[in-house]
Specification:
The protein contains 16 helices and no strands. It is mostly helical. The longest helix has 59 residues, at 345-403. Residues 37-46 have low confidence and may be disordered.
Amino acid sequence: MFWNSFYDKYWNFNNKKFVELLEKARKAKRNKQMHKSGNINIEITLFESVWKKEVWAFINKFSIFVNSWIDVKWALWILVKQIKNPYLKRIVTEMKENINHGISISETMNEYPKVFDSLTTALVWVWEKTWQLGKILAELDKNLLESIEIKWRVKWAMIYPMILLWLTIIMVIFMMVFIVPRITESFEKAWSELPALTQFVVSISNFFTNDYLKLIIWIVLLVLIIRMINSTYVWKITFAKMFTKMPIFWYVVKQSNIVFFIKSFTILLDSWVLLLESLKTSSKVVPNLAYKKELIRIKNEVEVWLTISKSLGLNLDYESSVYLNQLFPEEFAYVISTWEETWSLSDSLKKVWINYNWELKRYIWNLSSMMEPIIIVIVWILVGTIVIAIMLPFFEMWKIAKNL
């Protein structure tokens, strides 16, 4: 019978299933009422997405309104009028309507994990439990802005060299397809044998002009293979670990993930979120899968009464210990160990976050400054090789004319 589904095999009542059923019924009733009242504004968008900057703008204005003692529902109503993104407007409208039907804002946010990250949802949930919305929204506003800035700097450090390399490749392909064939056509008629470098460049040019379909097919196949491989968990975690060991960029990957973790972890602890829940939520905030896995491992070990510092790999029971954790530095483990003795984790981690954040920004700035001349040298080498290959026959002609 239907009611038997609420009992387990030992005939214990399963409260969780009953609550889920009530929640589904409540949402269905709310949606039915919204359809009847005509409150649902259906807008068809091809790409339903929200930029992080738009989420920050929403949180920023919401924080200002709430800290100005404006009612939450009235603040959401004002924001609906101001938001331009139709997808975000629909979500905020749903938040406003859900409040009237007993569904909290955090529950609505949970339905849109691609728009609102775990930290944002968790902090709003904390507000709903502690009624400190103004303070939490102000902290969340500041955190989102810092997070956007850090992610932008990290992405720019990774993308900027790639943009320059792609522009270089496009320029070389353009020269190979449109310039080299026209110049070398006359050489091939006049010369029975071209210089080795010139012949090499001509061969590459002929490949681009005559066999470009093969190149496109190989590129498409390579992209598909990488996507297929990256869809499996084994390769995802393998690539994540590779990024932490990538030459030059490894420091950016490690430092940025640690910065994201420290910031989210300290905000949650300051909001009186339990330690295990803070670790779990922080693991969802860090972008690298290897760090997610490591934080979940730490959370599971803390759950069975192991200290965080020992879970990180720090053992102070011996005079000389070997620290083997490759994701979190040893000084970070010592900060955690100090907190476990003094119970001042939040303040200590905030100081560490300030230092790490400053070092990350400095490294990204130096990396960007260093990569620019390196890319320019690569461009000059590639273009210079093509120019020299084109000019070599002219030098040979000049030598022959001089001997005559």
